[in-house]
Amino acid sequence: MTPTTRYAASPYEEALGRVPVRRAELPVLGGMTRYWDYGDADAGTTLVLVHGFRGDHHGLEPVVAQLSGLRLISPDLPGFGESTPMTECDHDIDGYTHWLRAFVAALGLEGRVILLGHSFGSIVVSATLAEAGVTRPSSVVLVNPIGQPALAGPRGVLTRLAIFYYWLAAALPERLGFALLRNRLIVRVMSVAMAKTRDRGLRSWIHGQHDSYFSAFSDRRVVLQAFRASVAHDVSEYAARIAEPTLLVAAVDDDITPIAAERRLRGIFPDARLVEIPDVGHLIHYEKPVEAARAIEAFLTEQGLVSPARAEGAA
Predict the structure, then answer these.
(1) Is residue 2 part of a domain?
(2) CA distances from residue 269 to 96, 132, 174, 211, 221 in whole angstroms, order as listed
(3) What is the domain count for the chain?
(4) Residue 3 domain flag
(5) Among residues 74, 78, 91, 169, which one has the fewest Cβ atoms lying within 10 Å of its Cβ?
(6) Domain for residue 7, yes or no?
(7) ∠ at Cα 256 (120, 176), nearest 5°?
(8) Interval 183-216: pLDDT, tens
(9) Are the C-beta atoms of residues 268 and 142 closer than 8 Å to each other?
(10) Can you give the pTM of this predicted structure?
(11) CATH code for position 243
């Protein structure tokens, strides 16, 4: 794989091109959080999206492209994408929950607010809402939620290999460790393992997304801290303390959290519903964004957070 590698075009490019977008930034906890503000800036409901481990805002754009009648704010997590690291706290669960509270407060949003977390972002959102005294959103959406400890998943052996990989990256001298973390062959192996689609064009585009953005982190310290947080926590730790109506959008073939664990997770929340999407794994946001968006719209319509007319118009 060289810098001249050609990938298939995004199947969601045309839909995303119809969505207004504004780029902005806010100073938060000693770092600069850069975010993308999509959709209707005057909408009565705002969806704040938190992406997964080693990703950035690009990963959730296929879902953003399918939603209408909303304002959608999608930041790059501190230390990833274009956001700079925090200097006032570590990049662990406590640090990221502190950041999410501060970021949402700094936005000064009016109207109804919904928090959406994907994968690692589902842990960040859940941990934030489990704390007492937090400003409460209208509802919560978790896509590919991490519903049980990572080592308990159907591919726990791969998680152990990942732990060794990050341990080795930490043990090596700085330059070699950083290079290992950004190794393109390892990124491709991860991408191949997670993609379930048999569509060659879609697989090519997914690999291109991972090659382009999966190594867009600021430094070794940030990614190692975030990785430790991603395998040390899961949503089930926090679910019982989240009273808001919650939508879980889960993949039937997820290798990280099996669907049986997602069904158990639903029962831990005081008020949750589960939508199961077949024939997809941990990449719902790439492979099944239309299905995810329809589930989100139906949920928000049920909660009275978007009008049925707008939700139907996005179909």
Answers:
(1) no
(2) 22, 16, 42, 36, 33
(3) 1
(4) no
(5) 169
(6) no
(7) 65
(8) 999 999 989 989 999 999 999 999 999 999 999 9
(9) no
(10) 0.94
(11) 3.40.50.1820
